Amino acid sequence: MGDEFNVTYITLGGYVEVNKYRYLYFVIMFTVYILIICSNSTIVSLIWIHKNLHEPMYIFIAALSLNSVLFSTTIYPKLFIDFLSEKQIISYSSCLFQYFIYYSLVGSEFLLLSAMAYDRYVSICKPLQYPTIMTRTTISILLLSAWLIPALHVVVAVALGHEKKLCNFTLKGIFCNNSVLKLHCVSSRVISIYGLVVLLDVALVPVLFILFTYTKILIILYRSSREVRKKAAQTCLPHLLVLTSFSCLCAYDIINARLESDFPKTVRLIMTLQVVLYQPLFNPIIYGLKMKEISKHLKRLFCQVKQG
Q: Which DSSP state fits 184?
């Protein structure tokens, strides 16, 4: 390999004995990918088809499922290629593109969850004003903002990183995340500070907003009847479960990439796979089982399939 090759391509060094277990890796991850696509597409289709699910809360759930499909499609096809290839490599420009899509969609997940929290807050704390606040225009603005704001933030980070010279050509991972910054010859204070700004804007602020809205909701529910508390729990609990799991996985991703933790390679691979495996499957399972209306339509769908 010449210098030109090294400048253009990055070796993905996070795989463990890929030559020995390549087909096992492929079968497992391909099965997971199909499950992610099918489960999330089913949730989106049910919400699209049934008019009683054409409410803000379910529209945001459909947006989360769509986000999970896009997120998985950013990562999984490249994993399949790597599992079946002799060399696990990626061009630097493709690596930056994957980095851009990956973190844009991660940011979108946080903003979509904060939009859902706002919807629950208005529904429970201001029920009489709900129809006038959560209009189609409001929903469209929230959805557009959830996908556009993170993309605009991350594209600046990509532009800053693109100009940097590379001295290291082996990435400690199986896809392009924040570890790509460790490939630069000189660490940039500007990129580091801007990364913290992005983290604050598209992750920490939405999480704090969600915690604030749910604190207000809990105060209202504390003064409400048992029936109201039970109904609110059915819609709020899945949201909090998804937020908690996603926040923990993202925290691991950031800490591992930023601090270059000395975990064994196998442990790092397993934890990295959790980031791309767990959440896209967790969303449809939680919302499918815990959201009463979606669960009802799912049962009818499976009954029709069995009868057919």
A: B
- Cα distances from 198 to residues 11, 104, 154, 219, 246, in angstroms, run 27, 10, 7, 31, 17
- Contact residues for 280 (Cβ-Cβ < 8 A; gap 6+): 36, 40, 68, 69, 71, 72
Q: How confident is the model at residue 192 (pLDDT cuts 50, 70, 90)?
A: confident
Residue 6 has pLDDT above 60, yes or no: no
Taken in order 280, 286, 287, 288, is the CA torsion positive or negative? positive
Q: Are 67 and 284 in contact (CB under 8 A)?
A: no
Q: Rounded to an integer, what distance in angstroms lies between the CA atom of residue 113 and that of residue 124?
A: 16
Confidence (pTM): 0.88
Mean pLDDT of 122-149: 93
Q: Which residue is associated with the tokens 């767990």?
A: 278
Q: How many CB atoms lie within 10 A of CB 198?
A: 17
Residue 220, class by beta-carbon neighbours within 10 Å (0-12 exposed, 13-18 middle, 19+ buried)? middle
Contact 53, 294 (CB under 8 A): yes
Cα 119 to Cα 194: distance, rounded to the nearest angstrom: 30
Backbone phi, then psi, for 225, in 5-degree steps?
-75, 165
Q: What local confidence, expressed as pLDDT, does residue 282 receive?
A: 81
**Could you report how far apart the first and last alpha carbons of the chain are, in Å?**
57
Q: Concatenated DSSP letters for 222-291?
A: HTS-HHHHHHHHHHHHHHHHHHHHHHHHHHHHHHHHHHT----HHHHHHHHHHHHHHHHHHHHHHHHHHS
